[in-house]
Design goal:
CATH topology of the largest domain: Serine Threonine Protein Phosphatase 5, Tetratricopeptide repeat
CATH architecture of the largest domain: Alpha Horseshoe
CATH superfamily of the largest domain: Tetratricopeptide repeat domain
Pfam families: Ig_CycH, TPR_CcmH_CycH
Organism: Halopseudomonas sabulinigri
Number of domains: 3
Domain Cytochrome c-type biogenesis protein H Ig-like: 291-396
Radius of gyration: 43 Å
Subcellular location: Cell envelope
Protein name: C-type cytochrome biogenesis protein CcmI
């Protein structure tokens, strides 16, 4: 920060010089001009007296008296001019001296009031050392970021994740709550907030956590954090069937054979063992009829749509509640794409598909990522699961 203040001091000094220099030059110029004029008038009067003396119009004593009078008038005129100019000069000098003293103090005070020296220092620190060496250093830096940028929802989210890594769930609840206030109902923030509340409450889901998870799954049906947490909570509560349902949905969106998939499958297997040990019949691995379709966009609409927009493909009962039974989330850039909807894509545990069911199939484009809002859609009515036919679902019109 030293170089910043030195630069500011130089600029302030230049500003004072720019103001003072023209006034000083003008005052000096006026003084020289007035003195020169008085001297010229005096010399002209002396020459005139000499000419009159040579012509015999004036005697020597008369000419000498006139020269003395001219000298006296020269001195009086110069003294009067300086006396008249002195008060104004003192006033101007006083104003300039006051401005020279007040201006730097005012600039520094206004910068402290409206400026952001902490933010500037933090910015330079992040440029000099973009990577931190420890979790504690990351938390310290992110705390300073949200201190100077309290409306930065992304920074609050990062701070919440850092708190969770440091086993500080209570602090993470506050951070995720602030992020939610700034970003809005983002699925990842909702799910992380619920997870932080779960650990802060001694591994218990409170009503606020359940509401946050429901909203996260409504916006993003396959949100991994929400499904994983609901499965854990169900398992610890002895609801092994519910845990299996959530984890099987999570497994469908996990890369096969990955460590994550193996861990999820291990949890499913333990839940089945617990059910068998308790004399309960574990649910069969999710199967049943499926819906095969190809999702695409009408060519004339492609230029109007953002390729990064979300596309929600879901099936619901035409005369039932508006919440979908099964859903998948895609991005517009993936289309056209072959999609298969199964019970593994169910929004809630216990949802089953039947070939006798009449379903409405919808693909909705949402630039905001909110499943409830969309700009364009495609729709198929009277769809039945289990058909061998591949359906064509084309996004071809603006949403109502």
């Amino acid at each position: 920060m030293i170089d910043f203040w030195l630069s500011a001091a130089v600029l302030l000094l230049l500003a004072v010089v720019v103001v003072v220099w023209p006034l000083w030059r003008r005052r000096a110029h006026e003084r020289v001009d007035r003195t020169a004029l008085n001297v010229a008038l005096y010399e002209e009067r002396v020459a005139e007296l000499q000419a009159q003396q040579r012509a015999g119009d004036l005697t020597e004593p008369q000419a000498e008296a006139a020269r003395q009078e001219a000298s006296r008038l020269l001195l009086e005129d110069t003294a009067n001019a300086d006396a008249q100019r002195a008060p104004l000069t003192r006033k101007v000098a006083g104003v300039l001296i006051a401005a020279a003293v007040v201006l730097p103090a005012a600039v520094v005070g206004l910068y402290q009031l409206w400026g952001n020296p902490e933010g500037l220092a933090l910015y330079r620190e992040m440029q000099d050392t973009p990577q931190v060496s420890s979790l504690e250093a990351l938390i310290d830096r992110t705390e300073r970021v949200v201190e100077v940028q309290p409306t930065n929802g992304e920074a609050w989210y990062m701070l919440g994740r850092a708190y969770m890594s440091a086993q500080r769930p209570a602090d993470a609840v506050q951070a995720f709550g602030n992020s939610l206030n700034q970003i809005g109902e983002a699925p990842d923030v909702l799910a992380q907030l619920a997870q932080a509340r779960y650990f802060a409450n001694g591994n218990q889901l409170d009503p606020e956590s359940v509401a946050a998870l429901d909203k996260a799954l409504e916006l993003q049906p396959n949100n991994a954090t929400a499904l994983g947490l609901l499965g854990i909570a169900a398992f610890e509560a002895g609801d092994y069937s519910g845990a299996i349902g959530y984890w099987e949905r999570l497994l469908q969106s996990t890369e096969p054979g990955s460590q994550g998939a193996q861990a999820i499958q291990g949890g499913i297997d333990r839940a089945r063992e617990r059910m068998a040990a308790a004399g309960q019949t574990p649910p069969e691995a999710q199967s049943g009829p499926s819906i095969s379709l190809r999702v695409s966009v009408a060519p004339e609409l492609m230029a109007e749509l953002d390729p990064a927009s979300s596309v929600f493909v879901f099936a619901r009962e035409p005369n039932g509640p508006p919440m979908p039974l099964i859903a998948k989330r895609l991005t517009l850039s993936q289309l056209p794409l072959d999609v298969t909807l199964t019970q593994a894509d169910a929004m809630l545990p216990g949802v089953t598909l039947s070939s006798e069911q009449s379903l409405q199939l919808v693909a909705r484009v949402s630039p905001t990522g909110d499943a409830r809002e969309g700009t364009h859609l495609g729709q198929l009515d009277d769809v039945h699961a289990g058909s061998d036919e591949q359906l064509e679902l084309v996004i071809d019109r603006a949403a109502d």
